[in-house]
Amino acid sequence: MGKTSEVWCHRDVKPANILVTGNSKVVLTDFGIAHAADESRLTAPGASMGTPEYMSPEQAQGQPPDARSDVYSLGVVLYQMLTGRVPFRAETPTAVLHMQATATPPPPRRLVD
């Protein structure tokens, strides 16, 4: 089998999709909206899929995600592990998406004593 240049993107990395087994192995689950980055989009142009609090800025702006989007989302998970909260919180998902695309998250040091 030859190597493929296909790049996969999970599109919904968040704590609920990260499991730790009994022998401390970390497993990423729920590939329901994952797709190859070069495939046609699953949604209409400008639409986005995922959990707003963990979406990358490009996803929040309706741009196609790629593997870097998953790295960003994992960074949000790490931020939450360190501070006890996600970087952006708002009353509506749309407001969270706007913050993801335009705001700078508070430095973790300001949130943790």
Describe this structure in words.
- This protein has 113 residues and is of the alpha+beta class.
- It has one domain: Transferase(Phosphotransferase), domain 1 (Orthogonal Bundle), CATH 1.10.510.
- The protein is 31% helix and 9% strand.
- The protein has four helices and four strands.
- The strands form two sheets. A two-stranded antiparallel ribbon has the order 1-4. A two-stranded antiparallel sheet has the order 2-3.
- Strand 2 and strand 3 form a beta hairpin.
- The radius of gyration is 15 Å and the shape is globular.
- The chain starts with 7 loop residues before the first strand and ends with a helix.
- About 10% of the residues have low confidence.
Write out key terms for the chains shown.
single chain; 113 residues; alpha+beta; Transferase(Phosphotransferase), domain 1; two-stranded antiparallel sheet; 4 strands; 31% helix; 9% strand
